[in-house]
Specification:
Elements: E1 19-20, E2 25-26, H1 35-50, E3 54-59, E4 64-67, H2 69-75, H3 93-108, E5 113-114, E6 121-124, E7 130-142, E8 145-154, H4 156-195, E9 200-205, E10 211-215, H5 217-221, H6 226-229, H7 240-256, E11 260-266, E12 269-279, E13 285-294, H8 296-348, H9 355-390, E14 399-402, H10 403-415, E15 423-429, E16 434-437, H11 439-455, E17 462-469, E18 475-481, H12 513-523, E19 526-533, E20 537-544, H13 546-549
Parallel strand pairs: 15-17
Antiparallel strand pairs: 1-2, 3-4, 3-8, 5-7, 6-7, 7-8, 9-10, 9-13, 11-12, 12-13, 14-16, 17-18, 18-20, 19-20
Helix pairs in contact: 8-9, 11-12
């Protein structure tokens, strides 16, 4: 037989007096003639002939002595064709010579065994077709002679199944190999993507919030590798001020199975945290995915954009206010100048008009023209002052002077511009009256405050001006009127450019005066504030510290 794989026979050597067969008779002369002997003979015969596998017996020279039906069926022989033939007749030609040597060796040292362990065995049919087999050998002695019994199994179908399984296994192994390679390539790609995740990290945590996976460019900023972090606590790496809030947010996802996004700030950095629940095959949450992104630059950009948009809106509002104010404030005095000029011209061309008549009629309109021109000049001065302040072209030119003398002279000049019957009452308090300030700038401040007091007060009203030299050398100036006051809703916007209180829309003005005053006061190192009550009056207070009043 060709060496090959065989199952090991577990049968024991058979020692019998004789076996009867339709093909051959062995030892029948030695078989007991008792009834028991006959029964045993029938049992052996039945077992031998009804065996599901091929059974054959050869002598020590390899000559076939006995075969069962299954042997003839398996190899394609009939009756006693195989009896007396060398057993090599059942082997392919190429294995016969070698098998004779192997058989002789076995006869010298017979033992129970399977032939060709770990190898393939092949047999040949009468028609020359070959097929794979398994063979188990055993031996016994009868009448002093050695006999060898072989159990032969046709494993053609098993071999086909094995070959099919082998092919399927090879295909499966190839598919597993291909899939493994694809997964490795995918994981490599995912890791590259994660490792290059900008301005943050991609993290996976277990239920104890320990790292299962972590990658991202943020790690490189701190010289940390993902390998060092896996298995360690994420919470332990966080600053104390955010540990509790982040732990709470992460555990809420475990408990609620709801993804979340939140923001945290620490170490002057802003982070956006996106948390996603990861489920196992049973649908239970066993891990969390946290995408942590540093949004500091984004936040700064958004803040700068908001400021830019706010400035843009403010500029648009200022433009709108300016157009509205300019169209009104310029049109009114120009209209008055035009109408007064036309009337003067009419009076001068009247044929029967006397000099006294013309003088009487024109004087009023000339005053009206002068007043209108003064208003226009005031408006232009406000624009010029604002432009210089915006461009930083205003410089302080300080000098030492008496605040009382300065204020008295100023009140004399401004008295002629007040409404009918209005008067200014001046009071000074303090042991000294010398200050070191920019006189022109101080005059503009006081002129604007007194002019506003006059405009927003009725005829015959009293305007109070007070200068105070504090014991510590600070200068305080107050201007109080008893006019309409400032509505509460408008007070927060009073120092904004082009702002007019809603109860002052019928009063001439640009809405720039107080904005300019505030800027002048700040340039001088002081501050301005006010107290007011609607329909009762307003007090503006300017304070300038000592180190800005005395050189």
């Amino acid at each position: 037989m060709e060496p090959g794989k065989d199952k090991i026979s577990t049968s024991h050597p058979i020692n019998f007096k004789g076996v009867s067969s339709p093909y051959v008779t062995l030892y029948e002369d030695h078989m007991p003639t008792t009834k028991m002997g006959e029964d045993i003979n029938q049992v052996y015969k039945l077992l031998f002939e009804t065996a599901a596998e091929s059974l054959l017996i050869v002598n020590k020279d390899g000559i076939i002595q006995l075969v069962n039906h299954r042997t003839n069926d398996m190899f394609g022989y009939e009756g006693k064709e195989l009896i007396g033939q060398p057993m090599e007749i059942l082997l392919p030609e190429k294995y016969r010579k070698k098998h004779v040597h192997n058989r002789d060796e076995y006869a010298k040292n017979p033992r129970r065994r399977s032939m060709g362990m770990g190898m393939e065995l092949w047999a040949v049919r009468k028609d020359g077709s070959e097929f794979p087999v398994e063979v188990s050998l055993n031996h016994f002695e009868a009448n002093g002679n050695l006999y060898i019994m072989g159990l032969i199994t046709d494993i053609t179908e098993r071999r086909k199944a094995e070959d099919k399984i082998k092919v399927l296994n090879e295909e499966l192994e190839q598919r597993v190999e291909d899939r493994t390679r694809e997964l490795e390539e995918s994981q490599k790609l995912y890791k590259i993507v994660a490792r290059n995740f900008p301005d943050g990290t991609i993290n996976v945590f277990d239920k104890e919030l320990k790292y299962v996976f972590v990658e991202g460019m943020e790690l490189f900023k701190y010289g940390v590798t993902s390998e060092k972090l896996v298995g360690t606590s994420y919470i332990d790496r966080l600053p104390d001020e955010v540990k509790d809030i982040i732990r709470e947010k992460l555990m809420q996802v475990f408990e609620s199975n709801k993804n979340t996004t939140f923001e945290v700030s620490f170490k002057e950095r802003d982070y956006i945290m996106n948390v996603v629940a990861l489920h196992d095959t049973d649908g239970n949450i066993d891990q969390l995915l946290l995408v942590e992104r540093d949004a500091t630059l984004q936040k700064k950009s958004e803040e700068e954009m908001r400021k830019t948009l706010a400035k843009e809106r403010q500029l648009n509002e200022l433009k709108s206010r300016f157009v509205s104010m300019a169209s009104h404030e310029f049109r009114t005095p120009l209209g008055a100048i035009l109408s007064s000029t036309s009337l003067i011209e009419e009076y001068l061309t009247k044929k029967d008009a006397t000099i006294d008549f013309v003088r009487e009629k024109t004087d009023k309109h000339i005053k009206r023209i002068k007043s209108s021109i003064a208003n226009l000049i005031s408006i232009l001065n406000d624009f010029l002052s604002l432009e210089k302040l915006e461009q930083g072209k205003v410089e302080l030119t300080a000098s030492l002077f008496s605040i009382t003398d300065f204020t008295k002279e100023f009140i004399e000049e401004v008295q002629t511009t007040l409404k009918k019957g209005q008067k200014v009452k001046y009071t000074h308090n303090g042991n000294t009256n010398e200050v070191f300030l920019d006189q022109n700038m101080l005059r503009n401040i006081m002129l604007n405050l007194v002019s506003n007091a006059s405009k927003y007060s009725p005829d015959n009203a009293l305007i109070e001006v007070t200068t105070i030299m504090e014991n510590d050398g600070d200068l305080k100036i107050t201007v109080t009127d008893h006019g309409m006051g400032i509505p509460e809703d408008d007070q927060a916007h009073l120092f904004e450019r082009f702002f007019r209180a809603k109860n002052a829309t019928n009063v001439q003005g640009t809405g720039l005066g107080l904005n300019i005053v505030k800027r002048y006061v700040e340039l001088m190192g002081g501050e301005i504030y006010f107290t007011t009550k609607e329909n009762e009056g307003t007090t503006f207070t300017v304070t300038i510290e000592k180190n800005h009043t005395i050189n």
